[in-house]
User: Fold acetylglutamate kinase from Alicyclobacillus mali.
Amino acid sequence: MGVIVIKLGGSLEGSAGAALAGAVQEAGRRGSPVVLVHGGGPRISKRLRDAGIELPFVNGLRQTSEEAMPHVMAALAECNRDIAEALAGRGVDVAAFADGEIVVAKDVGRLRTGDVAAVRVDPVRGAVASGCVPVIAPFGRDAAGRPYNINADHAASHIAGALGATRLVFLTDVPGIYRDFEAGDLLLDTTPDELEHLLQAGAFSTGMIPKVNAVLHAAQHGVREVWVVDGRDLEVLRMAMFGTSERRAAGTRLVAHKEGVTA
Assistant:
C-alpha cells in the first residue's frame, strides 16, 4: 500500500484520538505511511467570538479578514500542537508543520481566504522517510510570505494528490455524505460522475459543499480511493484505510475507476 492521507475534522477534536492513533500505528506495521491534515473550525470560531470578530461563510468557506488572520493562525497552531502531543502520548512519532510551510497559497479575491497554488512535498516526504507522521495545519503562505486561511478539506485533497496518495480518508462526525440528509439517504459507494451530478443539482448543504469538492479534486488528481467516515468508529476507520473488513453500511467511498470497487 502507498501513502494514506487522513484529514481530521475540527469537530472531532478530543473524540477520535484513540481510534486515530491505533489506526496510524497499524498503518505503520503494514508499511503504509500516514500523513495527517487537521481542521480547526470550532477553535477558530471561539477565538473570533472572544475577539468580537464576525466573519461570514460563502459557499461553506469562512471569509477571513486581515484582522482575523492572526486569530486563525493561533487557533490552528494550538490544534496542531494538541493533536501532535496526543499522538505522541500514544507512541506515535510525529513531525508538526504548523506555520504554513507546506501549502503554497494563492489569493482568490476573498480577503485572507485563499486556495492551494502548490504543495511543498519534500518536507513531508522527509518526515515520512524518518518514520514520522506529518501533522499539517491547513493554512498557507504566498510567494511573499503572506498567510492565507485555506479550507482543510481542500488542503488535504491537494496534499494527497501531490504525494500520489493511494487513499484519502476524511474523518468527520457524521457517517458520510448523504444524498438526502433529512431522509437519511447515505451514499455508500459513489463515482465522480454521481457526486458531480448531485453537486450541480444542489443536493448538498452549504457546509458539505467544500468537502464534496475536495473529494472530487482528489479523485481527479490521482487518488484512487477517497472515503468520508465517522472518525470515532475504529472499525469503519480501519475499513477505509485498509479495506480489511467486509463492506459495512457506513461511510462514503469513491473509487476513481469504477471497476476497482472492492473492499
Observations:
- The chain has one domain: 4-260.
- Residues 183 and 207 are 18 Å apart (CA to CA).
- The longest strand covers residues 103-110.
